[in-house]
Write a sequence for this structure.
């Protein structure tokens, strides 16, 4: 059995917190645009994934959705819908290279996809993370 890395539970709690804020945000469209909702969803997903990885004793190579997806697929099968949504989210913000930044604004009809993805990743974290 792999040793857990300390603080994984903090990442899990942070994932829950961002997830809660993401859910609340859809009821306040005057404040939360699809861009903000996408970023809240992405933060929640990243925190949940980090909790999963750290609870299993390792860290991912990078934190892009593509890289997190590749790492999680080594642990558990991922639904094609979730994979498609995470890759789509990754394509919206390509900001790793300062010479070739590309940002595409998500649309209102993207929001349900983001919420569904966060729910699916939460389920993975709830299933795969075991409190100490």
């Amino acid at each position: 059995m792999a040793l857990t890395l300390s603080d994984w539970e903090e990442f899990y709690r942070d994932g829950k917190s961002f997830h809660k804020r993401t859910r609340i945000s859809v009821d306040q469209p005057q404040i939360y645009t699809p861009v903000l909702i996408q970023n809240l969803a992405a933060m929640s997903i990243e925190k949940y994934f980090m909790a999963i990885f750290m609870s299993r004793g390792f860290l991912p190579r990078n934190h892009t959705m593509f890289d997190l997806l590749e790492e999680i697929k080594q642990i558990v099968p991922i639904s094609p819908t979730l994979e498609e949504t995470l890759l789509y989210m990754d394509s919206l913000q390509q900001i790793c290279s300062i010479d070739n930044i590309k940002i595409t604004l998500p649309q209102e009809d993207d929001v349900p996809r983001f919420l569904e993805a966060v729910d699916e990743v939460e389920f993975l974290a709830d299933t795969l993370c075991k409190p100490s």
Remarks:
- The beta strands are 93-94, 102-103.
- The helical segments are 8-25, 34-55, 65-72, 80-92, 111-128.
- The chain has a mean pLDDT of 91.
- Residues 8-128 form a domain with the Four Helix Bundle (Hemerythrin (Met), subunit A) fold (CATH 1.20.120.330).
